[in-house]
Amino acid sequence: MVQSRRSVLALGAAALMVPVSARAAVREIGWEDLIPPGVPYSEIIGEGEVDEVGDTWNPVFDENATKLNEALDGTLIRMPGFIIPLELDARGVSEFMLVPYVGACLHLPPPPANQLVVVATDTPWPDDELWDPVWVTGTMRTEL
Predict the structure, then answer these.
(1) pLDDT tens across 109-120, in order?
(2) 128 — phi, psi (to 5°)?
(3) In which region does residue 5 sit, left (phi positive, over 0), alpha (psi from -120 to 50) or beta (all else)?
(4) Of 61, 74, 79, 120, which residue is the least packed, with the fewest Cβ within 10 Å?
(5) Mind spelling out the 3-state secondary structure of the chain?
(6) Rounded CA gap, 21 and 25, in Å?
């Protein structure tokens, strides 16, 4: 099953800062937590095809690449990652893809769909810090 690179998890209305009173309820998660229990993290990427002309590897994702941990839906979470800007203006990045490693989606292979998180924030991230690792806190919405 080939998945569109636009298939991603959504981290709805995430804020880069959460009031101190809410921090106690925040669940810190890692990338492996985005897949359902019982699905091995090592099995979320299937076979791939080499494009010798373009000198790239095109992953062929299997059904494990789109399985989501539905238990996270509606949970206030905190997770690390790297920013791939989607919306950028003079104030900074207000919508971005959170990815597990620097350069993901800019270089092949892209992460599978269940390892991509869309983040929207009212507090833009400075565009001069795009290569820095970040922690994002917000309410997780699980949808492809």
Answers:
(1) 678 889 999 999
(2) -90, 5
(3) alpha
(4) 74
(5) CCCCCCCCEEEEEEECCCCHHHHCCCEECCHHHHCCCCCCHHHCCCCEEEECCCCEEEECCCHHHHCCCHHHCCCEEEEEEEEEEEEEECCEEEEEEEECCCCECCECCCCCHHHCEEEEEEEEECHHHCCCCEEEEEEEECCC
(6) 9
